[in-house]
């Protein structure tokens, strides 16, 4: 699946998007896999309460299942307007 | 209903006039414009706005559709910029048209509250010291509860 990062999440991880091969059942499982990769991922995902997640461009949550999802995006709370 | 997500600046007067020219049966038009303001102590050089192409348009469409089901609106306009913006430049605007002002005012406030916390934009303030992401305020999230 495609994993996208925005704002300071993108900066901490050091890239805007990547293709990830995963069997993770939920968003939280995917986060655990990413955290285990490298320090920069662990730093970006240190505090999940500071993060939001979108699945196929709809706002979702960390307990949501990933079955059938093509695009996951992680970002801080939005500051539009 | 028109939604524009763009880097280009826009002219508030021209947009408001074009919006008003196209209406039928509206007795009230409300417009709101957000502008790049300086930091409390000064020193802002620019504001950079990042967004999530695709989701941004989808989220704004859902928010405006919601507004149109809750209030009797003749038309809705949302323009939101991204990229690098200078001090004093317009960031975004909403316009709502309705038969009566209450619907137009409330719908505009609803749109603003939701655009702030549910449209995927992230602001960054650029100063001579560096760049800081603007943190979302709890009050912005709380503002959604009244709807």
How would you portray this structure in words?
The complex is a heterodimer of chains A (81) and B (147). In chain A, 30% of the residues lie in helices and 22% in strands. Chain A has 81 residues and is α+β, with helices and mostly antiparallel strands. In chain A, strands 2-1-5-3-4 form a five-stranded mixed β-sheet. In chain A, strand 3 and strand 4 form a beta hairpin. The longest helix of chain A is centred in the middle third of the chain and has 11 residues. In chain B, strands 1-4-6-2 form a four-stranded mixed β-sheet, with helices on both faces. A four-stranded antiparallel β-sheet of chain B has the order 5-3-7-8, with no helix packed on it. In chain B, helix 2 packs antiparallel against helix 3. The longest helix of chain B has 18 residues. The mean pLDDT of chain B is 96. At the A-B interface, strand 4 of A face helix 2, helix 3 and strand 7 of B.
Name the poorly predicted regions of chain A. none
Rg of chain A to the nearest angstrom?
12 Å
Average per-residue pLDDT of chain A, rounded, comes to 97
Our Rg estimate of chain B from Cα atoms comes to: 16 Å
The SSE string of chain A, one letter per element, is: EHEHHEEE
Largest interface: chains, residues each: A-B, 16 and 26 residues
**How many helix segments of chain A?**
3
Spatial order of strands in the largest sheet of chain A? 2-1-5-3-4
What does the main sheet of chain B amount to? 4 strands, mixed
